[in-house]
Amino acid sequence: MKKIIFIFIFVLLIAGTILTIKMTGNTTKNLSDSNKVKIETTAGNFVIELYPNKAPITVANFKKYVSEGFYDNTIFHRIIAGFMVQGGGMDTNGNEKPTHAPIKLESNNGLSNKIGTVAMARTNVANSATAQFFINVVDNNFLDYKVGNDGYAVFGKVTSGMDVVNKMSKVKTDSNDEPISQIKIIKASFV
Predict the structure, then answer these.
(1) Which helix (H) or strand (E) holds 68?
(2) Do 189 and 71 meet the contact criterion of CB atoms below 8 Å apart?
(3) Is residue 183 within 8 Å of 76, Cβ to Cβ?
(4) CA pair distance 180, 184, nearest whole angstrom
(5) From CA 130, how far away is CA 185, in angstroms rounded?
(6) Cα 117 to Cα 114: distance, rounded to the nearest angstrom
(7) What is the predicted pLDDT for the residue at 60?
(8) Residues 6+ away with beta carbon under 8 Å from 186
(9) Which of 62, 83, 79, 76 is nearest to 136 (CA)?
């Protein structure tokens, strides 16, 4: 009798797991295999489609930070109307978060800094990008790779929620291009 009850409970558990997977669409596939990232902010949400075939190092780097929860509770700390919004490196107190080592610049990948594209921020040193990224709110072709111009590596594009990004780009900022009212990344997650 105990054996029958055990088998019955085991079958119920298996059936429940299968039903849950079918109802939620949740499988054992790792979400970090996804090339779409949802950015939830205090200004609204947007989704970024990543381009691993064009910028494999940059996409892997960005996905690593998303997987680690690095972008959660960071801010968009630099916003220039008619240019771009930048975030992903400062905590809510305005302190730069510790990052992994810089990555190789992949700006010579055929992608252009067009409206809605996402690129890695960096210093004046070509191979200095770590976690910070920016979203172009206008076409910024002068940021593209050219002979004599290292450019900035585009690695994705906002595919939904560009209205949120445009709204963010128009907030009041101080003389350092920091928003007067903080815009926080609540969560970055794979979708």
Answers:
(1) helix 56-68
(2) no
(3) yes
(4) 12
(5) 17
(6) 6
(7) 98
(8) 40, 41, 42, 72, 73
(9) 83
Q: Parse the chain into domains and list their residue ranges.
A: 30-190
* pTM for this entry: 0.84
The architecture (CATH level 2) of 30-190 comes to Beta Barrel (2.40)
Both tokens of residue 114?
Answer: 């067009």
Which runs of E-coded beta strand occur in the chain? 36-41, 44-50, 74-80, 84-91, 117-120, 133-136, 154-160, 184-190
* 124-152 residue pLDDT tens: 999 999 999 999 999 999 999 999 999 99
d(CA 79, CA 187): 19
| Chain centre distance of CA 66 | 7
Other C-beta atoms closer than 10 Å to the C-beta of 10 total 10
Contacts of residue 39, Cβ cutoff 8 Å, sequence gap at least 6: 45, 46, 47, 48, 71, 161, 185, 187, 188
Amino acid at site 101: A
